[in-house]
Specification:
By secondary structure, the protein is an alpha+beta fold. The chain contains 11 helices and 12 strands. The strands form 5 sheets. A 3-stranded mixed β-sheet has the order 1-3-2, with no helix packed on it. Strands 10-11-12 form a 3-stranded antiparallel β-sheet. Strands 4-5 form a two-stranded antiparallel ribbon.
Length: about 325
């Protein structure tokens, strides 16, 4: 079908047919009709690349929301923004990794309260052991529940959003588990990370993300949903166009800087030592993901480590160099 053929744009991508890249063209071209008829998937876009060449590109009409506000059915193309929801948390985590590489954040095991001296009255001996690493792995131990619908006034994220000081609201919650022991889903920890990034880098999350992450990847026209005071919603407010991946990968190919991961934040492959272990010529972004996604906190029930419930996790256990950020509704960024 003509609308499945990738557009030839000045974005660094070489366009090719599926057959020329050794793929089953009939099978690939069946993706569009399949998702058109399977409306429950609510697909917005499918792009397929093979050996650095774009072989398939298709956009759909689907339901979308902007931070819980229904936008109805949207006819998507390469330019229309869509809701990433909790994948925004994974982007915030990447920015923390960039801040570590830049030297703005020196230690993942730094106590969180060292970044919030204005809330020193909330400190306790147990809360003083909460670190940045615990925020990144949602294992701070705070009492928190986002299992209730957001419209429910007892939903913890809703309560944080309505609080006069969001960071204080998170930090004043009682601990129900020792820090670092149990995973508890908590968008409030991402709000704390965004505030720490602002303090450490001197710029708000959206400005930092554009300068350090999106601009180097050639991604523009990104929207952040904001709180009433104008602060970007770090946990679920990111809305890029569906073709952001095409723009990013095309920029990487055009610049001939290797993989997308190596392109992030202009970080080269380096020899470095992290947490006392040598990592020789590993791509820094992949090294960062391996650090923050490594299992150490247990689930509240069953005692099993569940890597699906992290800001980043391995996309597949047999592909340790591939990582995914996932939202509650199944949306993923790899």
């Amino acid at each position: 079908m003509a609308d499945d053929i990738p557009a030839t744009l000045a974005d660094g991508w070489t366009v090719a047919s599926p057959e020329s890249m050794g793929l089953d063209g009939e099978l690939i071209r069946g993706i569009g009709p399949h998702f058109e008829s399977w409306t429950d998937t609510n697909a917005h876009a499918v792009l397929i690349a093979r050996h650095g060449k774009l072989v398939y590109e298709r956009y759909f009409t689907g339901e979308d929301w902007a931070w819980g506000k229904a936008l109805g059915r949207v006819a998507y193309d390469a330019t229309k923004r869509h809701d990433l929801r909790s994948i925004s948390k994974s982007i915030t985590s990447l920015l923390v990794g960039i801040a570590v590489d830049r030297g703005w954040i020196a230690d993942l095991d730094a106590p969180v309260f060292t970044f919030f001296p204005e809330h020193a009255d909330l400190r306790t001996a147990e809360k003083d052991t909460i670190t940045l690493r615990h925020l990144l792995t949602m294992s701070a131990g705070f009492a928190w529940s986002e299992d209730l619908p957001y419209q429910n006034p007892q939903n913890s994220e809703r309560l944080m959003t309505d609080a006069p000081d969001r960071c204080r609201y998170v930090l004043e919650q009682p601990l129900v588990r020792p820090p670092g022991r149990v995973y508890i889903y908590n968008g409030g920890t991402t709000a704390l990370l965004a505030a720490i990034l602002h303090k450490a880098a001197g710029q708000p999350l959206d400005v930092l993300a554009q300068r350090e992450l999106f601009d180097p990847l050639g991604i523009g026209d990104v929207e952040w949903i904001r709180y009433i005071d104008g602060t970007p919603v770090a946990a679920s407010g990111l809305r890029p166009p569906p073709a952001a991946a095409r723009l990013a990968e095309g920029r990487s190919a055009r610049a001939r800087r290797g993989t997308l991961a190596e392109q992030v934040g202009h970080l080269p492959s380096v020899d470095r030592r992290v947490d006392g272990a040598a990592h020789q010529r590993r791509r820094p972004v992949l090294l960062w993901l391996s650090m923050v996604a490594r299992p150490f906190a247990r689930q509240p029930r069953g005692g099993q480590v569940d890597l699906r419930r992290r800001l980043w996790r391995p996309a597949a256990l047999h592909r340790p160099e591939q990582w995914a950020g996932r939202a509650h509704d199944g949306r993923a960024l790899q």
